[in-house]
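Structure ticket #2291
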Amino acid sequence: MNYKVSFQELAIIQQRILSKQQPTTLEKAKKQVETLKNISSQKSKKQRC
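Resolution: structure written out below.
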């Protein structure tokens, strides 16, 4: 990775990457949140034991 990239150049690169991604629906986002909550709660239960 090139660490000598300016913030402006980095923003342009990120915009290109985001433009290639498919748009996210609200339903997909909610499913992802539920999945992350479940994974998080499972990890915290394991740490308590």
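Closing remark: DSSP finds two helices and no strands in the chain.
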